[in-house]
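Person: Please work through this fold.
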Amino acid sequence: MNVLLLSMPDSFEHMPSVVIRMPNGALTSLAGNLDAHHHVAVADLILVQKQVRETVERLVRDTEPDIVGLSVMTFQRKTAKKIIDLVRHLRPQVKVVVGGYDPSLAPDGYTDNETGKVDFIVRGEGEITFRELLRAIEDESGYDHIKGLSYRSGDRFYHNPERNVSTLESTEIRPPNRKARVLSGYSILGRQVDVIETSRGCTFDCSFCSIIEMRGRNFHAYSFDRVIADIQDAYDNGARALFIVDDNISLNVKRLEALCQAIIDAGLNKIDYTVQAMTSSIANHGDTLAPLMRQAGFRYVFLGIENILEDDLQFLRASSKNTKREDGKKAGNATIKAIEYIHKNGMYVIGGLIVGNPDDTRESIEANLEFARRYVDWPYIQHPTPYPRTPMTKDFRERGLIINENLEDYDGTTAVVKTEHMSAEDAEFMRWQAERWMKVRFMPVAFRHEPWFIIKNAPKMFADTFRGSTWKNFLGWEDEREAFKRYRAIRKIERAYI
């Protein structure tokens, strides 16, 4: 069968598109886990945000798909349904499959009989379920035996039992197939970038996290032989930068240290790595861990700081993973110590913070923004977002703080909840106003790393960061609220991908 796999064009608003365009690793993993006789094409529509319709039309015409699969996050649902409508118009007989966080946690959003009609929903990990689905379609053997699958029969949807998460110890989940990609242009600061995973899962229970709701609290890892082979494959396919997408790679510090050494021993430390990590792991083991990370080629560390105030950390259920320990006892917040280790070893901090929590005031938000100005290299500041089935969503709904039910706005940088003391718009304005200048401050750092890229693209980066602003704002002749209004209007237009 001919299979076309699509990721959505909707993107998070943290970095200009000229700076970063990351592939969807789930799609290449699906492609690598289908039986070899299928013809698979993978297209990340984030690469063609201004030509989505034309690209989908061309891909459907060229690949003549029997199956179209879409990977969807919550804020991408509206776009996904428009793409499904387009695909069905172009090829009425096609079977449509959706998967990812949003269909897994909110399948009812895809079971309607009107706009965006879907045939199958792959819930949770998709590799084995999708492989079994294609076999069932070919064999005409029915679908009720496939765990993790929801399927349409007539006008009804049937939901099969959940599939247990894979332990990743066997070869049941095969390596990704990067050669299935039919679009190009993945990059970070001018370098071709790819994604790898070395483990899946997390044992913490952060209130904002969809991962726990989708797969439970667990942690499973691939063998180092597989990981090193995957890194080599990404390198052989042109990648000179890699983002490690593990849910919580620093959960097992000894394993992370061993992985760093394996990368060094394999000579793959010539690649620039970006990784997500907990502050506690870095702070409590930084003497040995941080130097190894840098030697292995790690350059950017996304730190899940979440918030610097204990009350907010309690709401986010993120206190324990941000706690420094001394002699086996709690010794305060781990964030500053973790940042010190990262900077001392020549790496940079992407600071993940969440502001606009239920009890936040202007002062508490400003405290977090000031911390980011002082300590982080690149801000990744978000607003709490009520994604399906997370504990955070239940809390916000019970307190009546959700003010926006438009899912396309659930992108993390649009405030869709108010606090007990502030409007959502005021919280978003504070973040937007401060974050722009933090990004400008990072330009000299980026210049030292990639000087020619910055020289060439600095005007585009500046224009993207400050879109909505005019010379009047910089001179203080116009209230920045006016620039903020223009920025929001621009973002609304940008979200209309199809």
Observations:
- The chain has a mean pLDDT of 94.
